Amino acid sequence: MLFDDDDITARGAVRRSRGVLKHPSDITRVEERRALLEKYQARQREVRFVAEKADKTSKPRLVAAIAERDNKIAELERDRELLIASHRAVILAVGEMGGMRAWLKLFEAHDAALRRLDAIGAMPPAEACVG
């Protein structure tokens, strides 16, 4: 829908789901699906805004701006991978020294942070942390 420049709506997503979803409320009542719908609606607004500005901006400038943005995204992704790798190494070092219990105690009130670290791959396997 984004690439076809069709309005991204719950009803439109149901039409394109090939029978997987039956009603727009199948999207809107499930928090994760609703968040995904809203994310792509925001992305569509952004794409349309850039396209509208493109009519007013020279094409070479637009290409340069997109290339600069892509380079920044690539740089941030490399930085993220580096930070995840170093975070895993620190956790492994703490685990080898027997301090995992103390490290986890720092996060006991931040279960969501631990789940997020695990989701992005920043947590080594539990058996690797036991020292």
Note down, in words, how this protein is organized.
The chain has 131 residues and is mainly α. It has two domains: 1-56, no CATH class; 59-131, no CATH class. 69% of the residues lie in helices and 0% in strands. The protein has helices at residues 10-15, 25-28, 31-56, 59-96, 100-106, 111-119. It is flat and about 60 Å long.
Question: Helices, strands, pairings?
Answer:
Layout: H1 10-15, H2 25-28, H3 31-56, H4 59-96, H5 100-106, H6 111-119
Distance between the termini: 51 Å
Parts with pLDDT < 50 across at least 5 consecutive residues: none
Biggest β-sheet: count, sense, barrel? none
Number of domains as seen in the coordinates: 2
Structural class, please? mainly alpha
**H/E topology pattern:** HHHHHH
How many helices does DSSP assign?
A: 6
Overall morphology: flat
Task: Write a brief structural summary.
This protein is mainly α and 131 residues long. The chain has helices spanning 10-15, 25-28, 31-56, 59-96, 100-106, 111-119.
Summary tags:
single chain; 131 residues; mainly alpha; 2 domains; 69% helix
